[in-house]
């Protein structure tokens, strides 16, 4: 209802004006505080030289932390200034007065009495807005249950600080707000959904933070969106104890990171680490690796479809992604580690400072809590002092022996000249010997530990992978399989780049031999598009992070990398996360009923198995349309007609081709008719164009108002991989979907087209 028609309009208007004024006052105060803190820091820095410096440092640190807090508050409040809250609940706790709670993206309290002006959407009581029905309700906070009556749930549409609509919600009104939010067009980037989070999504956002959570969600069910809201929830709930740098979001590519970049500051989570798996591996190992991109392998598979070579490509990728391969590396690394320990005693001339047995004891028993190379460092450090002491003892012994000899000469030789000569010779010998020993003692440890070769991770891996006999011994594979494995790295070694499937093994070797410092290992992980990762990748990350605080989200139906990725979530639980909680999302919020029905229909006709059909939120637009182009010009005309739809309703457009090559062909054909549209590649880190050409695999995770699935040379057949690619492409559309085929519709599209009778 229009705000002014609502009976409470005046009160609500007043409340909004009061809230805005309060925010303004807080912002002004914060601005002033900021300059005060900055001033204090400056002053402390000046005084640092002549005052007690420790006091000044305390002063600087205190002011810096206040400054940071103030700046964070300032940022958050300035974000919400135009729309301070989106809903209100009236809650009467048992035995207490009714409270009107206004819910927004950040909390705000009156300074004088600590009464809430805005309640944060992540707070325990705000859960009543997302889950509670009018009537008796309860919520949990700090391990306690609070009960009471919920008498009102109200939503507001506030635009640029003005109250536009007020809705008292029952189930239908809530739907209205969701509908409205879904009909708006896709920007280039994801947006926050705090005001329309649905019950099934809310449960995932607020699920137990200490257990791994695996979410299977259909296309468009909000996985990416709620993953980011869950991060915001973590930050709020863990508050002081949470360090944003301990949280890491792993995304499929950099384009995707750009796609989520707008929503992060809105939700106040922009300080968390965001990376891709290859980038994380690269950064952790510290070596300059050039990873062939994930999709190169996919392109190769698409090109080799149904050939024997593709079976080998798949076999190698799935072997390298398995826990069996991890065990192979374990056996191999054990031998590498056994060889690592220095041979022989640590000696100083003929003296044994430490026996080989002692050294082995430290390496294999005492310091096994450290990775081998760190063990060696530790041993060097510990031995430094002890070995010096022992060496000094030995040197003293040698010195005593000489002194004894000299004494004997002094008392034993009568002739003075002879005696003096002998004493001088012995003294010189002694000095020389002691000098030599001292010098040797200085270098003793370094020389001894020089035996420990610093192997490069890449070399260790290649030593195994290019040696057929080693592969057969450690890997228990047959001759043919060993050759296929060796071939898979040889091709790349020549180009000094590595395959993505080698990333986890390399990271594992690094972790086993060198370890990853605790500060560099994230404690909270969010992995989106998780179906594309394999058990080995999950296991190695889990080993490094040594934590169970994982949120894993994916959709097996979109598992276009399933030859190497996760085939069932159960397998992932069995292999790596036995303690995981599992949740599903079946409602799709992105696409219209018409598009989702067509995508589901396509899945049912395909050869794919085990897919999960999505249920669209009821929202309608036109049915997908099929067009055949016979000439270049015809193709261009059809594309032009679609692009002409661009306006307020439809803003973002994507033409999706099956592969990179197909996209290049589409671009070329359109260019011939003066339509220039950029082709996205996985090297791109962002895009700002309203219309792009994008290969199907790269479109995964993204969304557009209008999608055109174009086939020039490459159609989609019924096999599993093509079905998944087509499914991904179809489910990227928010509102309209077009198919344009050059010449007759063939394969899967041919079947769908026939069925429509167009
Ligand atoms: N509760 C909601 N309210 C409003 N919009 C929503 C809601 N949930 C999801 N959406 C919208 O649905 C669209 C799909 O969300 P998102 O991209 O997070 O889904 P996804 O499950 O990650 O999709 P996919 O796996 O297909 O990439 C986005 O535009 C998002 O804003």
Mind explaining what this structure looks like?
It is built from 27 helices and 24 strands. The protein has four domains: 3-200, no CATH class; 212-293 and 518-588, 3-Layer(aba) Sandwich (Rossmann fold); 342-451, no CATH class; 606-756, Rossmann fold (3-Layer(aba) Sandwich), CATH 3.40.50. The mean pLDDT is 86. The two termini are 41 Å apart. The strands form six sheets. Strands 1, 2, 3, 4, 5, 6 and 7 form a seven-stranded mixed β-sheet that branches. A six-stranded parallel β-sheet has the order 10-9-15-16-8-17. The radius of gyration is 34 Å and the shape is globular. Helix 16 (457-465) crosses helix 19 and helix 17 packs across helix 18 (479-494). The protein is of the alpha/beta class and 758 residues long. The structure holds adenosine-5'-triphosphate. Adenosine-5'-triphosphate binds next to helix 4 and helix 6.
């Amino acid at each position: 209802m229009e705000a002014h028609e609502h009976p409470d309009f005046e009160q609500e208007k007043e409340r909004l004006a009061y809230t805005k004024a309060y925010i303004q006052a807080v912002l002004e105060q914060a601005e002033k505080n900021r300059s005060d803190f900055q001033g204090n820091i400056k002053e402390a820095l000046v005084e640092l030289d002549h005052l007690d410096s420790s006091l000044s440092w305390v002063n600087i640190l205190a002011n810096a932390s206040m400054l940071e807090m103030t700046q964070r508050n300032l940022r958050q409040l300035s974000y919400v200034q135009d729309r301070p809250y989106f809903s209100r609940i009236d809650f009467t706790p048992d035995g207490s007065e009714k409270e009107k709670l206004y819910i927004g993206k950040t909390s705000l309290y009156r300074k004088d009495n600590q009464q809430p002006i805005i309640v944060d959407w992540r707070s325990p009581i705000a859960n009543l807005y997302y889950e509670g029905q009018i009537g008796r309700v309860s919520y949990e906070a700090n391990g306690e249950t609070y009960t009471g009556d919920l008498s009102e749930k109200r939503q507001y549409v506030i635009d640029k600080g003005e109250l536009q609509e007020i809705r008292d919600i029952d189930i239908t009104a809530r739907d209205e707000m969701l509908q409205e939010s879904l009909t708006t067009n896709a920007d280039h980037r994801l947006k926050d959904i705090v005001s329309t989070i649905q019950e099934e999504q809310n449960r995932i956002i607020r699920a137990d933070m200490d257990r791994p959570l695996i979410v299977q969600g259909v296309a468009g069910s909000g996985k990416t969106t709620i993953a980011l809201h869950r991060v915001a929830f973590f930050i709020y709930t863990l508050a002081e104890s949470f360090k944003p740098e301990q949280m890491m979001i792993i995304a499929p590519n950099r384009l995707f990171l750009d796609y989520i970049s707008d929503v992060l500051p809105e939700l106040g989570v922009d300080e968390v680490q965001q990376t891709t798996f290859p980038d994380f591996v690269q950064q952790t190992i510290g070596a300059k690796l050039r990873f062939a991109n994930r999709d190169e392998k996919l392109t190769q598979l698409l090109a080799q479809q149904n050939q024997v070579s593709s079976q080998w490509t798949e076999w190698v990728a799935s072997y390298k992604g398995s826990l069996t391969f991890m065990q192979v590396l374990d056996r191999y690394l054990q031998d590498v580690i056994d060889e690592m320990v220095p041979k022989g005693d640590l000696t100083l001339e003929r003296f044994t400072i430490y026996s080989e047995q002692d050294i082995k004891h430290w390496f294999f028993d005492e310091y096994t809590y450290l990775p081998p190379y760190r063990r060696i460092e530790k041993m060097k450090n510990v031995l430094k002092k002890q070995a010096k002491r022992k060496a000094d003892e030995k040197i003293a012994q040698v010195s005593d022996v000489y002194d004894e000899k000299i004494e004997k000469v002094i008392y034993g030789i009568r002739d003075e000249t002879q005696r003096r000569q002998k004493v001088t010779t012995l003294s010189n010998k002694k000095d020389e010997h002691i000098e030599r020993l001292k010098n040797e003692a200085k270098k003793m440890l370094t020389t001894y530990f020089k035996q420990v070769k610093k192997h490069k991770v890449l070399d260790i891996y290649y030593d195994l992978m290019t040696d057929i006999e080693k592969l057969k011994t450690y890997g228990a594979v047959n001759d043919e399989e060993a050759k296929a494995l060796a071939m898979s790295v040889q091709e790349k070694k020549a180009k000094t780049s590595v395959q993505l499937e080698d990333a986890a093994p390399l990271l594992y070797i690094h972790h086993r031999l060198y370890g990853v410092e605790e500060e560099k290992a994230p404690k909270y992980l969010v992995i989106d598009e998780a179906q594309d990762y394999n058990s080995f990748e999950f296991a190695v990350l889990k080993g490094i992070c040594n934590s169970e605080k994982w949120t894993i989200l994916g959709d097996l139906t979109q598992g276009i990398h399933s030859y190497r990725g996760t085939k069932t979530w159960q397998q992932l639980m069995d292999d790596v996360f036995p303690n995981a909680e599992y949740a599903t999302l079946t409602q799709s919020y992105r696409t219209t009923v018409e598009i989702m029905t067509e995508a589901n229909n396509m899945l049912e006709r395909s050869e794919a198995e085990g897919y999960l059909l999505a249920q669209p939120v009821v929202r309608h637009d036109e049915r997908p349309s099929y067009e055949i182009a016979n000439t270049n010009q015809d193709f261009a005309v059809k594309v032009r007609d679609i692009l002409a739809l661009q306006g307020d309703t439809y803003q973002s457009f994507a033409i999706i081709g099956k592969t990179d090559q197909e996209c290049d062909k589409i671009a070329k054909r359109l260019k011939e008719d003066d339509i220039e549209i950029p082709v996205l590649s996985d090297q791109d880190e962002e895009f700002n164009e309203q219309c792009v050409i994008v290969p199907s695999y790269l479109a995964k995770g993204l969304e557009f108002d209008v999608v055109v699935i174009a086939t020039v040379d490459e159609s989609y057949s019924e096999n599993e991989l093509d079905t998944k690619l087509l499914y991904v492409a179809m489910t990227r559309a928010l509102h309209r979907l077009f198919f344009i085929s050059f010449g007759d519709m063939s394969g899967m599209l041919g079947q769908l087209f026939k069925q429509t009778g167009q």
